[in-house]
Predict the structure.
Amino acid sequence: MKFSPLIDQLVQGLRCLPGVGPKSAQRMAFHLLERNREAGMQLAEVLQLALTQVGHCRECHTLSELDICGICSDTRRDQHMLCIVESPGDVLAFEQAGSYRGVYFVLMGHLSPIDGIGPEEIGINHLLERVQASAVSEVILATNPTVEGEATAYYITEQVKARGVLVSRIAHGVPLGGELEFVDSGTLAHALSGRRAVE
Amino acid sequence: MKFSPLIDQLVQGLRCLPGVGPKSAQRMAFHLLERNREAGMQLAEVLQLALTQVGHCRECHTLSELDICGICSDTRRDQHMLCIVESPGDVLAFEQAGSYRGVYFVLMGHLSPIDGIGPEEIGINHLLERVQASAVSEVILATNPTVEGEATAYYITEQVKARGVLVSRIAHGVPLGGELEFVDSGTLAHALSGRRAVE
């Protein structure tokens, strides 16, 4: 016995959240029960609503409760540029940077044959249909600079190029404001090999 | 616009949890939506259940959905010893230490006149009724060693002593396994003034 059965269940339930261990879950449960029942009830409601209603945008596959998400349905966005990212969080990162006016395609993962995740599972067939059917003139690859992300980018490059569409990859190198001595050697080697002539 | 309205609401809702900022809330929302909808739904259900059903134990005031909590209703516990703590988490800490066999009284806070929290609000009237009515022979004060906790302990001491019942306070000092050089000076001064003759 730790607490009463229902409180134990609540503590256990909160542990499904990423980064929440037994101590944090306990603190969260007591916080809600002692001080913030109203907000807790609202959280329960929005959780149920979101988990039953949020699906994927028909165009870009990002998470959305709308059939077509806000970005895809925005007529001011440039439909000729298609930026490929791995997750909805990446879309947010680009939107916060603020300079991209094209549209996105969200893979919701990356190729990982060992886990049974092939091109179909990350919607590449749909991506290629879209490239062929609509007026996409440039596909910008912004998958993560990991082994899986690079492999996914390579696969997409091959497929898109075969359809005669320009493919580009976002630049990787030393981050702005970063100090060289704290940049890892992989990034530094990449930055060196990707150097550009100063005009 | 950040995400779709419902996802925004979910991210916002998760921020009612203590220690969860915008980035963590976003990570939690995506984790649940992408990978763990079932656990999320269970969390929503147990949240609603706990927030509507959990109240306070009639005897010790701890959080419980039962009218009388597991500890108070356990006939093997020594009803002569009553340990006063500030929160249900403190009860758990004692139970995990494992050496206490008496019962508890949970104040659910401490005296704080500036916030309008007087003796009534933390159930001291009920505590005194219990001390007088039942067979309590020792009241053990285990409020936190903070200004408010000490003030609360002092107030209870006065009231309980007036009713002819023994009052004790748990020992404060250098924690076991702690290294002296890392112990704060307040604790060290307290440990020194509270020294006991070695027998």
